[in-house]
Design goal:
Elements (H helix, E strand, L loop, with lengths): L2 E3 L8 E3 L8 E3 L5 E2 L2 E3 L1 H14 L5 H7 L1
Antiparallel strand pairs: 1-5, 2-3, 3-4
Length: 67
């Protein structure tokens, strides 16, 4: 079964920015904005692993600490 995920971090925590424009999505975990991809669970895990290895995980908590 395939489902929509963020292509940057692999999260399913995504939502439409503007429902009338199906191609504009926002990831609530890494702040990515743009198209999403449909993947299976194995591909999602691979994306998440690569994202974690880069050390570039962005969260609102990290943003607050930088201020």
């Amino acid at each position: 079964m395939k489902f929509k995920v963020c292509p940057q971090c692999g999260s399913e925590n995504i939502e439409w920015i503007i429902p009338q424009n199906w191609s504009q999505w926002s990831c609530n975990d890494c702040s990515y904005t743009g198209l999403v991809i449909e993947v299976d669970k194995e591909t999602q895990k691979e994306i998440q692993k690569q994202w974690k290895e880069t050390g570039r995980i962005i969260s609102s908590k990290d943003d607050e600490e930088d201020d």
